[in-house]
User: What shape does this take?
Amino acid sequence: MERSNGVALRWLRRGLIGLVVATVALLTIAFVAIEIIGLRIAAETRIDTPNGIESLESVRLGGVDQTIYLRGRDRTNPILLFVHGGPGSPEMGAAREFGLRLEEHFVVVHWDQRGAGNSCSSEVPDESLHLEQYVADTLELVNHLRDRFGKERVFLLGHSWGSVLGVLAAQRHPELFHAYIGLGQVVHMQRNEEISYRFVVERARAEGNEEALEALAGIAPPYAEIEDLMLQRAWLGHYGGAVRDGDPFVMIARSLIVSPEYSLAAKLSFYACAMNSLDQAWGDLDTIDFLRDVTRLDVPVYFLTGRHDYNTPFELVEEWMGSLEAPHTEIIWFEESAHMANLEEPEAFQDALIQNVLGKVLGENASDRPTPANTPPVR
Assistant: This one.
């Protein structure tokens, strides 16, 4: 009997060792395949024009190193700074999915904000992950880009959480910007969450989805925990209020996995870094009410708005634009999109920026002059 048990244990150990070896081998093959795909993507989209730029760089902002990725076929073109959402959800990995034509007209700058993506490190203290520091980082990066490329102004595009940073930066220093572009624009955070929650509950009731109704009954905005927010956002995704056709988390993950701009370590830590940023900074949004606090912006303003967006509800964007004073205000509608028009309708997104924004702003005032040597950057 003891001999039989010993034989069985040896076979079990061998089986477990074999399983571990097989798992490691499969993971290794997967990682190698992902690396090969990333290298192929990089080769197929390499910018090799004489005056072009394609560069993954580290820049010191607010005392910590942060990563930017610059792509453009002519470095003398206007700068378009893309400020991602979240907090903590960079879109650098998807740069090629919604930007290859933009690179013919702009130097497109993608930035992983402090504590997120390639800018997530032990050097970044949690206490620095707050709204005012992010806005300060935004302005410091803008001035860095102005100095580096000899530009007086840049185009600033803020997506979701990034739209809060963008509005505050444009409000404080409009002289730095050709225009402000809000994608999935945040307007009034308290009403934002109330409308978003109501949309999900109404859809669940119409469908007779008892599972959703039971889950949602236990939470209500303002959410006591980040887990409550994530639960609501999961059902929002289910009902097409975040991405009309698809899953926003899958879209970002798919791009991230094969992105040549992220190391394996950065990919593996991406989600944990994003959740930490969200946990630290989400509360700063509670007081955001641009209907009350931002009644005027001294730059042209364009809102790129999904007709089905209930993550940052489109109706609040319409309401704000009706009262906002600016040299120019315009909503550009994306009829087949919710919150991520750049990934849901990438061709229309690029058309909007090239034809509507760039064409109107620099078509009417076609000057992107180098900053005079005696003009210090505004900090």
